[in-house]
Structure formats: structure tokens, C-alpha cells
Design a protein that fits this description.
The chain is mostly beta strands. Among the domains are: 185 residues, Sulfite Oxidase, Chain A, domain 2; 122 residues, Immunoglobulin-like, CATH 2.60.40. 8% of the residues lie in helices and 27% in strands. It has six helices and 24 strands. The longest helix has 8 residues. The two termini are 15 Å apart. Bound molecules: the ligand Nc1nc2c(c(=O)[nH]1)N[C@H]1C(S)=C(S)[C@@H](COP(=O)(O)O)O[C@H]1N2 and molybdenum atom. The site of the ligand Nc1nc2c(c(=O)[nH]1)N[C@H]1C(S)=C(S)[C@@H](COP(=O)(O)O)O[C@H]1N2 has 20 residues, from strand 3.
Length: 455
């Protein structure tokens, strides 16, 4: 496979400075540097002892690599950089990322003839922490982003209810609200995993139809109680106010259990792309159920059999049976670094970093392998570990310069374990498109080039 090394990105790969900086009082013991799994994976205890004192050397091109961080004046104090010699910029009404972060952007994949139909991917490999900035949340629109006047927007609850109700946004904000940190993943995320050959693309442009936000809004149980739902009801059909009036059916039990209508995203009103002024949040279930620009909830006793639950999201299995209404997002993990497009400059101790999540609950454990899954070692989970939320993991890896295959495997608190690719394909066959959550393998070759492999 042809990978042009000149075009490798300079994404930061955390790398150990060896020997340890003298300032660090707790050096890594010899024991900590003994691998606990094949290919050089170290015990996660190394992080407890000294946080690996990773000097974050970059794979070329950075200020640190150019030695700028070390420049001292004659007195031995750090040099005064130019930005300390003049007053800084004035205040701004609404902040933006540093211009240096410009390359961190969503990648767009839209239909050329219908530019409002497509996706944009979150650049997962460039982000840290649990939350996705609202401006980088992935997007999936079937017919563009409606420009909605919030004053004119209404939510109707009707159907099998004693009391149909209509709400303006101003009515809804008077109800008790809740905030939850929840990932949202499109059921079609990672679908290139079903391709015969491993796709060679940066992580985010392949797996980036998943993001994580703090959503704030009103629990539907409260609104439905007020509407007085008929005991015969078992489904709810949700409809959006976009030009396609996208609709989809959701079991009533789930809606009453934990669904809510969100008005805020990461502390501010929802972004237009993510459903302004109102969207449905269906925690842990596939993205398509989380109807944006929500205008109608019809209580019924059967699913509506909309396009997105029949023509799409229904898949033939090898057994001849079909999967349908496969709502829950199963546990999944991705190594974000090293990942495709990054370069390991030389044999050294590296931090393997990644993301894990599960629609069923909390991430219980992530294992990491450097020998293609022959042996595994438990990764360190970054606190807090919340149900149905992004969880960060990391592992220390002593790379000896030989080719290695890196994998991560998530398990959640229901006991579900992320499958190897061949197990997923054996179960689901070759007609798969949705719900691809297999273990992802990255090969690091002897030159430190990282590529995607099926292994
Ligand atoms: N009204 C409406 N709701 C919608 C969609 C849409 O096109 N129209 N796309 C759905 C799909 S397939 C997904 S994956 C999520 C994407 O949400 P996001 O764009 O906020 O990431 O919204 C869902 N809700
Ligand atoms: Mo989706």
C-alpha cells in the first residue's frame, strides 16, 4: 500500500523523554518498564507513578522539535517571546479557537447534486477530553439544515393521548430540566469497515460520525404524563421540521425511561446543525432516532415503517433472517494515537491513546494489544467514567522499531465485549452497512508509518 511519507501529518504523538528529566522526583522503576504483554505494552501502573513524564515530542514541524522551547537568554532564564512584548488582543463577544487550530475541522462528505444530504465527520484524532466542541460535532442531514425561527417553532404531542399538547420553546424552558453527558453515534458510522480492503483515511474521516456533548432539556416522561398516554400505546413516532420531515419510530418504554427534548448543547442553545431549537435525545441508541428540529411526537400502537426503519437500517443476515430495529449502540473503542497518518519518529516509549463508549452503560475496561491481539494488557481509564459517555484510555508502549499491530478492545458493565472483525463479519455477513463496531487494527511499520489493516 502506497503511503507517501512526505504527506504524513505532524499530529502530536506523546513520546517519552529518555532519560527521565532530572526535575522529576519519581523515576520509572525498572519493573515498570518491563512489558506486561507482547510487543512492548507496559503496565498501566506507570501512569500512577509518574504520568510517564511524557515530553510530547512531535513528529516533526513543531516548535518543540525546532528547539524553540529551550531558548534561554544569557541569565539562564527562558527567553521573552514576542507575545510578551506587546499588549494582547481586546475582548471579543463570541470566542473562537486559536488560528493555530485551523486545521482541526470537520471533513464534509456530501452528495454533489444534493449538497444538503450527507455527513460531516468529527476529527476525533485531534481532540482531547470527553466533550466534542459544538462546532466540531459530526453532522448527518437528509435534506440540509432548516433555518428555524424559534418564536414560530412548536412541538405537538398527539395520537393515543387523552390531552394533545402544543409547546413553544418558551413553554418548555419552564419545565424541570436535566443535563446529561452523552455520546451520539450514527448507526452508519465506521461502515467502511465492511469494505473488502481496509480504508486508508485519517481516523476521524472513517469513524468520526460520533461525538459527545452535554445535552440539557426536559424529560419526556413529564410531558407525556401531562398528555395522559393511552395504555394501548407502545410506540412514538418522532418527526423533524426539515424539508424532508424525517420521521422514525421509537418504543414508548424507552421514551418514558430516559429520553428528553434538548434545548441546550454544551451550555448554549443547540447549534442549527444539531437541531436548533429542539431535538430529541435517545441516550445510547443510534443517531437516526435522535430527531432534530423536533416538531411532532405521535403516540401510537405500532411503528410507522418509515424509510429509515425499512429501506434503511434493516439488514439481511447470513441465516436469511433480517435485523431490524437494532437500536442500541454496542461497545466500541478506537486508538486515536497512533493512528493512520501519524508517524513514530524512532523507537521509544509512546503513549497509546484512545476513546471508548457503549450505548448500554459504562465502559468497564479497555484492553490494548501490540501483537495483533495475541496478548492484551489493561489500559488506564481517565476519570470520570460515565454511562453512555466518551471514556478516554491510555497505555504505555515501548516500541522496539519492529513492525507491530495495535488494537484496543472495550468491555462495558453489562459484560459485552467489542468483537474482532472476523467475528463480526461471520455473525453479520457481507451485507452489513450499519452498526460496525469491530476492533480496529493499526499497523506500525519499521519506519514508524501507521496504516489501517484487517488483522
Ligand atoms: N430531522 C432530522 N433529524 C435527524 C436527521 C435528519 O436528517 N433530519 N438525521 C439523523 C441521523 S441519521 C443522525 S446520525 C443524527 C445526527 O445528528 P447530528 O447531525 O446532530 O450529529 O440526527 C438524526 N436526526
Ligand atoms: Mo445516522
Amino acid at each position: 500500500m502506497a503511503i507517501d511519507k512526505q504527506r504524513q501529518s505532524t499530529t502530536a504523538i506523546a513520546r517519552n523523554a529518555d532519560p527521565a528529566p532530572a526535575a522529576n522526583p519519581v523515576p520509572v522503576s525498572i519493573d515498570d518498564m518491563q512489558p506486561v504483554a507482547g510487543g512492548g505494552i507496559l503496565h498501566r501502573r506507570v501512569f500512577l507513578r509518574r504520568g510517564l513524564a511524557l515530553a510530547t515530542a512531535l513528529a516533526g514541524g513543531s516548535a518543540a522539535a525546532a528547539g524553540q522551547a529551550d531558548v534561554n537568554d544569557a541569565s539562564g532564564l527562558p527567553a521573552i517571546p514576542p507575545w510578551m512584548r506587546t499588549p494582547g488582543q481586546p475582548f471579543t463577544p463570541y470566542g473562537h479557537p486559536s488560528p493555530h487550530e485551523k486545521p482541526v475541522a470537520r471533513r464534509i462528505g456530501a452528495n454533489r447534486l444534493v449538497p444538503g444530504n450527507g455527513v460531516s465527520w468529527t476529527p476525533l484524532e485531534d481532540l482531547g477530553g470527553m466533550l466534542t466542541p459544538s462546532g466540531l460535532h459530526f453532522e448527518r442531514h437528509h435534506n440540509g439544515v432548516p433555518q428555524i425561527d424559534p418564536e414560530q417553532h412548536r412541538l405537538l404531542i398527539h395520537g393515543l393521548v387523552a390531552q394533545p399538547l402544543t409547546f413553544a420553546i418558551d413553554d418548555l424552558v419552564r419545565y424541570p430540566m436535566q443535563s446529561r453527558l452523552l455520546f451520539l453515534e450514527c448507526g452508519g458510522n465506521s461502515n467502511a469497515g465492511w469494505h473488502q480492503e481496509p480504508i486508508q483515511r485519517p481516523l476521524g474521516s472513517f469513524h468520526g460520525l460520533v461525538s459527545c456533548s452535554e445535552w440539557t432539556g426536559v424529560p419526556l416522561a413529564i410531558l407525556l404524563e401531562q398528555a395522559d398516554v393511552d395504555p394501548k400505546a407502545s410506540w412514538i413516532i418522532a418527526e423533524g421540521a426539515d424539508a424532508i420531515a424525517m420521521n422514525i419510530s421509537i418504543p414508548l418504554a424507552k421514551v418514558v425511561d430516559d429520553c428528553f427534548v434538548a434545548i441546550y448543547q454544551n451550555g448554549e442553545k443547540l447549534r442549527p446543525e444539531n437541531g436548533y431549537p429542539l431535538r430529541l435525545i435517545v441516550p445510547g441508541w443510534e443517531g437516526v432516532l435522535n430527531v432534530k428540529w423536533l416538531r411532532r411526537l405521535q403516540v401510537t400502537d405500532r411503528p410507522v415503517m418509515a424509510r429509515n426503519e425499512t429501506g434503511k437500517y434493516t439488514e439481511l443476515l447470513p441465516s436469511g433472517k433480517a435485523r431490524q430495529f437494532t437500536f442500541v449502540i454496542d461497545a466500541k473503542s478506537l486508538i486515536t494515537s497512533p493512528s493512520h497518518g501519524q508517524l513514530l519518529p524512532a523507537p521509544d516509549v509512546y503513549e497509546i491513546r484512545g476513546l471508548a463508549w457503549s450505548g448500554r452503560g459504562r465502559i468497564k475496561k479497555v484492553d490494548v494489544s501490540a501483537d495483533s491481539g495475541k496478548t492484551w494488557a489493561e489500559a488506564d481509564l481517565q476519570e470520570p467514567v460515565l454511562s453512555r459517555c466518551f471514556t478516554r484510555f491510555r497505555s504505555a508502549w515501548k516500541w522496539d522499531g519492529h513492525p507491530a499491530i495495535l488494537k484496543s478492545r472495550a468491555a462495558d458493565d453489562t459484560g459485552y465485549v467489542q468483537p474482532e472483525r472476523n467475528a463480526l463479519v461471520a455473525e453479520r455477513g457481507r451485507h452489513g452497512y450499519f452498526h460496525y463496531n469491530a476492533i480496529v487494527a493499526w499497523e506500525v511499520d519499521e519506519d514508524g508509518v501507521v496504516s489501517h489493516v484487517y488483522a
